[in-house]
Design brief:
Blueprint lengths: L1 H23 L71 E7 L2 H11 L4 E9 L4 E8 L5 H11 L4 E4 L2 E4 L6 H6 L12 E6 L13 E6 L11 H11 L14 E6 L2 E3 L2 E5 H13 L4 E4 L1 E2 L4 H12 L3 E5 L19 E6 L17 E4 L3 E5 L3 E5 L6 H8 L4 H6 L21 H8 L24
Parallel strand pairs: 6-8, 6-11, 7-8, 11-13, 13-14, 14-15
Antiparallel strand pairs: 1-3, 1-4, 2-3, 5-10, 5-12, 9-10, 16-17
Helix pairs in contact: 6-7
């Protein structure tokens, strides 16, 4: 009994200096305004929520949030996607590849019939049943009259959405400082019951650091397509699920990870496109994955944007890398989307990664410079890039709502949210201690016991 009271009083002392701030902290929105979007971006009607805010969160419950279920119930998709404004002008002399979304197969077939005399070549068609769409990809050899053709298509078939099949790149460029820096201490059972998804390269599941991991993979690359190195996806997976082999300790080694392989090799480039991302997101939606990490970036795309908004409205939590193009770079999507937590990278000294993108879209900072991670082929090495900061935020999203992560961040740089660090460095330990305390005395925090008796909570 004496030791119990000593621990409780120690925590009460801690709360004396911290509780006032904790009670009044609010999550900064950090929404990118229309001025941050490229001039060719497409606006989507409707009011966007604050960056990363969970729509299902009840505002009156600000204390310890409940642990997310392993397989949350995701509402069925709408009968058809919301109407969107037309994409930016696409006419050009070069060939163009288009991605077309329709509410059902009958309309998709009408689009194909309409496109045939205009020499649009149908490359693929797929039913995205979990998103409620049929996806078609067309190649247009001569794009000079494309805008007038698209206007005619929309007049003939108003339920059709069309945009360019944009390309996206992976954003990458034995220390274990990352977990210590964020207050995370992993153990073999950490992450039990949690589920995450990633969009990345394939993962080398036979890597020693991933032996025994609960890893579910699926490739979305067509047959015959060149596959890139698996280094990027393997590093991301090991940062999450690593079993400790050669110092590679994962944040959530007991979690289940759904890995969607969406990247192909194009010469020296590793890239994906809108169609592949939509197919992968449809799979993750069908598997009821509650947290999705995206270590990739590219142009704004209206189809991808509405899918991510739809998933967010169903309760899915999203995180993406801000990019590695430097201080003068334009915002990258999907990180710049308000429903997505945009993650930047810092080093062991909490200094910003020198090549990280900046701007109002930045939401949180996490370790991403010189991290010790797995490489395909069984090796290990140091990795750097905003890509590798995303797993830290994704892991935290399995335990906390996005607003709680923003409110609990350690302020870096200028006071308050700023375009370099966003809300600041992701921090887990103090908040988890307070949330996991056993309530004693009066209901809720009180002057005798504070939050209550210290209990182990999460990965401490």
């Amino acid at each position: 009994m004496n030791s119990r009271r000593v621990v409780a009083l120690l925590l009460a002392g801690l709360l004396t200096s911290q509780w006032g701030l904790a009670r009044t902290a609010t999550a900064p929105t950090g929404e990118p305004g229309s001025t941050t979007a490229p001039s060719t971006s497409t606006s989507i009607p409707g009011t966007a929520p604050a960056r990363g805010t969970d729509p299902a969160a009840a505002p009156q419950r600000q204390s310890a949030p409940p642990a997310p279920p392993t397989r949350p119930v995701i509402r069925p998709p709408a009968a058809q996607p919301p109407a969107l404004q037309p994409p930016p002008p696409l006419s050009r002399e070069a060939a163009v590849e288009l991605v077309v979304a329709t509410p059902d197969m009958a309309i998709a077939q009408q689009v194909a019939s309409w496109a045939a005399p205009r020499q649009w070549r149908l490359r693929q068609r797929q039913n995205l049943s979990h998103l409620g769409w049929v996806l078609s990809v067309f190649s247009v050899a001569d794009g000079r009259q494309l805008d007038s053709d698209l206007a005619a298509l929309r007049a003939a078939l108003p339920g059709v959405m069309v945009d360019q099949n944009h390309r996206y790149k992976a954003l990458s460029g034995g220390v274990s400082y990352g977990q210590a820096l964020t207050g995370w201490h992993s153990h073999p059972g950490c992450g039990e019951g949690a589920t995450l998804g990633i969009l990345d390269t394939a993962v080398a599941a036979d890597h020693p650091a991933l032996v025994g991991a609960d890893l579910v993979q699926r490739s979305f690359l067509p047959s015959g397509v060149s596959t890139p190195s698996m280094d990027h996806g393997t590093a991301i997976a090991a940062l999450l699920l690593g079993n400790g082999d050669d110092g590679i300790v994962g944040l959530l080694p007991a979690a289940r990870l759904y890995a969607a392989a969406v990247f192909r090799g194009r010469g020296d480039e590793t890239e994906t496109d809108t169609a592949l991302l939509l197919q992968a997101l449809d799979w993750l939606a069908g598997e009821q994955v509650p947290v999705i990490a995206m270590s990739l970036g590219g142009p704004r795309n209206q189809l991808l944007e509405i899918v991510l908004r739809q998933l967010h409205q169903r309760g899915v939590r999203l995180a993406a890398a801000v990019g590695n193009d430097g201080r003068r770079a334009a915002p990258l999507w999907p990180a710049a989307q308000p429903e997505v937590l945009a993650v930047t990278a810092v080093d062991a000294g909490k200094r910003l990664y020198r090549r990280a993108n900046r701007g109002d879209a930045v939401a949180l900072a996490a370790p991403g410079v010189d991290l010790w991670a797995a490489r395909a082929g069984g090796g290990q090495g140091y990795v750097t890039g905003t890509s590798f900061a995303v797993p830290f935020v994704a892991a935290a999203l399995t335990r906390q709502q996005a607003a709680a992560l923003l409110a609990g961040a350690e302020d870096l740089g200028e006071r308050g949210p700023d375009p370099l660090y966003g809300a600041g460095l992701l921090r887990e330990r103090l908040r988890a201690l307070l949330a996991g305390a056993e309530d004693l005395g009066e209901r809720g925090p009180d002057p005798l016991y504070g939050a209550g008796l210290l209990r182990e909570s999460g990965c401490l």
